[in-house]
Amino acid sequence: MTTPLAQARGLTKRFGALTAVDELDLDVGPGEVLGFLGPNGAGKTTTVRLLLGLARPTSGAATVLGCDAWSQAPLAHQDVGFLPAEFALHPRLTGWANLEHLRRLRATAAEAHRARARELAERLDADLNRPLRTLSSGNRRKIGIIAALAHSPRLAVLDEPISGLDPLVQKEFHAIVDELRSSGAGVLLSSHTLPEVERIADRVAIMRAGRLVACERTDVLLGKAVHRFDVTFADDAEAVSFLRRCPSLTAVSRVEHDGAVVRFAVEGAVTDVVTTLGAHRVLTLRTPETELEDVFLRYYGPATEVAR
Ligand SMILES: Nc1ncnc2c1ncn2[C@@H]1O[C@H](COP(=O)(O)OP(=O)(O)OP(=O)(O)O)[C@@H](O)[C@H]1O
């Protein structure tokens, strides 16, 4: 069995009466991208802070690269890359000056670090020569990604890395994450939304109210999700004809009908629905992206609330 790069066992953090992270067990393996999802306040950032030794667990423990995350944090950090949700670099310094400062802290070899930073800056179309405060928030985020990855870490912990990045840059970022995985690095990628991680994560861990409520392979999770359909038929009669066949499609629910437009949800496999639609005159078909809430609905029912 491969040794995890990051591991949490019974990891718990309480703030007074509030349990922000509750008995969490989690692993990130080498060559694995783990999507870390949950709604606001679920406990993602607290977990990340515990893994990075920025907060002390109330009970349980986290291990990062074989080191205790709290008591041996400086040792573990040599080989960990971290992109915080809130920006932590110096706003008056240029990207290069910030990178140089971080490199010295880690005592990474200058040449390799600069070459990797240059390569990442080119690929992400980032400007390392301007003071960070003069950059747009998306462009600052790029510098944060470079700062997290320039020392070629074995483990990258990235809190909402692509929020604010344009689609082309997101695509390049995905390619960079793919390469990290191929090189044997581990990546923990936290996000609010499933679409942000579904393209790149091997597994997805979902937190809610401090607890881990699911940890599955991404394809398995998506296979269980609710998929939404928004269909415009050639005319009202065609829509009605489709609706008559709907009751025989067991996975179809939440049907809404407005003239030639029919909206509905499908739980799990969409094969039957797509075959049935193929027998009707369809003008347009939209499938809005699967939201995290849709996964929860399928998994835990609409009233899922995990008690603290
Ligand atoms: N230092 C703190 N003191 C008191 N409560 C805290 C502290 N840090 C976090 N919390 C609480 O712990 C819970 C989990 O917060 P956390 O920031 O980990 O959630 P999150 O999943 O990262 O949310 P978001 O997606 O909004 O960033 C929240 O209820 C939050 O208010």
UniProtKB/TrEMBL annotation:
Gene3D superfamilies, alphabetized: P-loop containing nucleotide triphosphate hydrolases (3.40.50.300)
Membrane topology: Peripheral membrane protein
Domain ABC transporter as annotated: residue spans: 6-234
Any GO BP: response to antibiotic
Keywords: Antibiotic resistance, ATP-binding, Nucleotide-binding, Transport
SUPFAM superfamilies in UniProt: P-loop containing nucleoside triphosphate hydrolases
KW Acetylation (keyword) present: no
GO molecular function per UniProt: ATP binding; ATP hydrolysis activity
Localization per Swiss-Prot or TrEMBL: Cell membrane
Main location: membrane
An example Gene Ontology CC term for this record: plasma membrane
Family under the similarity heading: Belongs to the ABC transporter superfamily.
PANTHER family noted in UniProt: ABC TRANSPORTER ATP-BINDING PROTEIN, ABC TRANSPORTER ATP-BINDING PROTEIN NATA
Protein name (Swiss-Prot/TrEMBL): ABC-2 type transport system ATP-binding protein
Organism listed in the record: Allokutzneria albata (Kibdelosporangium albatum)
Taxonomic placement: Bacteria, Bacillati, Actinomycetota, Actinomycetes, Pseudonocardiales
